[in-house]
Design goal:
Layout (H helix, E strand, L loop, with lengths): L1 E9 L2 E10 L5 E5 L6 H9 L6 E6 L2 E2 L10 E4 L11 H11 L4 H14 L15 H13 L5 E5 L7 H18 L2 E6 L2 H7 L2 E6 L2 E6 L1 H6 L4 H6 L4 E12 L14 E7 L3 E7 L8 E6 L5 E3 L10 E13 L3 E7 L5 E7 L15 E7 L3 E6 L3
Parallel strand pairs: 3-8, 3-9, 6-7, 7-8
Antiparallel strand pairs: 1-2, 1-4, 4-5, 9-10, 11-12, 11-14, 12-13, 14-20, 15-19, 16-17, 16-19, 17-18
């Protein structure tokens, strides 16, 4: 699928601004962003429920913008299920085939196959009101898939479910995708959902696509400060490049490939830190720097390492938040700077955090674990 130059306005509001994407056949592709960013509008344009002001959409090299929804080989699963309350599960799934006047034997066989796919064979004769939220969503998915579309469009399909059921359904949805093998385009505002199942993610904000990449790329190498903040938690600081040194081949260890540089940054209120980068930044440039909380090591004792690429600071625990599997620390380095740290509890012997409120601690991270997100002047 190729989406090229799609723009859409509603009155004076720009919902989509020259959006272009290429989605490979058979991949699980997510449109991720906050409410109002344009992701659902884009999905509705792909489905044929909205028309863009400009641009093209091609399925298998065929422009589909002039085609009505029922001729696009794309089916949509909505967050409110859109099931017929008076029909049984079986008849809800059979409905698209009944419209096409398929033979009864074919309808019976295909409906049974798709109910088996979504593990609802035992519920075939129930009405939607007798089902849980997760079961209703599976009926909606089976009904969309029975048309054998080349693309399945999913508009925040799990948002009405509770957290545990949402996780369970997400795994099932990924398994269905692996079984069917068609293209899934998934709209969500939940970054964990997108990171968990996607082959590629497009992060959107205010009608623009800010970054397209694999979950690893999006998380580890965010293209903008917005992406860094939106995808998980992070520590984000404005900084100025103080110095840059080209590193010997293979010395960086960041795995990025190509030429790497060791940059020194001045962060107001924090001081000087080191970060490896593949971008050739120059002294005096203003940049945005990020380091994820789980990359920062927190200890009571000063680390004994003599490695020159380690950034080391001292601070006081302002707020420890224990969550069972991890503890999140807010550490005040001074009146200006707070650094967030996440410490995982991976061992049985980790009965609880040994670092508590108001403890004096040391924070450290490797230059390879930080990242220059944006260069704001070149």
């Amino acid at each position: 699928m190729v989406i090229k130059g799609i723009s859409k306005t509603f009155g004076g509001f720009t919902a989509l601004n020259n959006v272009s994407l290429t989605i490979q056949k058979g991949e699980f592709f997510s449109l991720l962003g906050p409410s109002g960013c344009g992701k659902t509008t884009l999905l509705r344009i792909l489905a044929g429920f909205e028309s863009p002001d400009s641009g093209t959409v091609a399925f298998d090299n065929t422009d589909v913008l002039s085609l009505p929804p029922n001729q696009r080989q794309a089916n949509t699963v909505f967050q409110n299920y859109a099931l017929f309350p008076h029909l049984s599960v079986f008849e809800n799934v059979a409905f698209p085939l009944r419209l096409k006047k398929r033979p009864k034997s074919q309808v019976d066989s295909q409906v049974k196959d798709y109910l088996r796919l979504v593990q609802l064979e035992a519920h075939a004769h129930k009405k939607p009101s007798q089902l849980s939220g997760g079961q209703k969503q599976r009926v909606a998915i089976a009904r969309a898939l029975i048309n054998e579309p080349s693309v399945l469009l999913l508009d925040e399909p799990l948002s009405a479910l509770d957290a545990k059921l949402r996780q369970h359904m997400l795994i099932e949805l990924d398994q269905i995708h692996d079984t069917i093998g068609i293209t899934f385009i998934y709209v969500t505002h939940d970054q964990q959902e997108a990171l968990s199942v996607s082959d590629h993610i497009a992060v959107m904000d205010q009608g623009n696509v800010l970054q397209v990449g694999t979950p690893h790329d999006i998380y580890e190498s965010p293209a903008t400060g917005f992406v860094a903040r939106f995808i998980g938690e992070t520590n984000l600081y404005d900084a100025q490049v103080a110095g840059v040194e080209k590193m010997p081949a293979g010395a960086g260890g960041s795995g990025a490939g190509g030429t790497e540089y060791m940059a020194e940054l001045d962060i107001p209120g924090l001081g000087r830190i080191k970060v490896t980068t593949v971008d050739e930044v120059k002294p005096g440039q203003r940049v945005t720097f990020t380091v994820r909380p789980e990359k920062v090591v927190i200890t009571k004792e000063k680390p004994s390492t003599r490695r020159e690429d380690i950034n080391l600071f001292r601070g006081q625990v302002d707020e420890p938040i224990y969550s069972g599997f991890q503890t999140k620390f807010y550490v005040k380095v001074n009146d200006e700077i707070m650094i967030r740290v996440i410490k995982q509890h991976a061992k049985y012997s980790d009965e609880g955090p040994d670092i508590v409120w108001r403890d004096q601690v040391y924070l450290s991270w490797s230059a390879n674990d930080g990242y220059i997100v944006e260069v704001r002047d070149r």
